[in-house]
Amino acid sequence: MKLLAALLLIAAAPVQAAGLTVPMGETWLFTIKNGEPAEARKVTPSAKIGKRQIKVAVRPILGTAMTVTNNSPIAYTFRAELVSGGKATVARSCTLPANARPVFEQWQQKADAVRISDFKVAGPDGRC
User: Fold this and answer.
1) Which of 5, 46, 105, 109 is the most exposed place for a label (fewest CB within 10 A)?
2) pLDDT tens digits, one per residue of 45-95
3) Distance CA 41, CA 29 (A)
4) SS3 call for 3
5) Strands annotated E in 3-98
6) pTM, whole model, 2 decimals?
């Protein structure tokens, strides 16, 4: 009986979603490994971006706003999800340019956090 209860508890545990979830008001630095954020750490908004690092900040501006700066020679596309009340909604995101040029995303929906994942090398045309 205890074994059955333990198995049910494990089965009911939520699966950790891929990517990095950045809570409202926070700034994070990370690198990309196998298309996902790696070596992520919370930093101050004024933190310097090292080579091949990406800095993301989420703020409550006219709903939800996110600034992302990619200090690598590779432009990326990525998946963005707005997280509110534990539920995630896919959001539009533009190509993340290379060479420390930032991208600013803004959504009318208020969110508790933004989850970013599934980074892929961007094509020459980008998107948005």
Assistant:
1) 46
2) 999 999 999 999 999 999 999 999 999 999 999 999 999 999 999 999 999
3) 6
4) helix
5) 20-23, 27-33, 36-43, 54-59, 64-70, 76-84, 87-91
6) 0.83
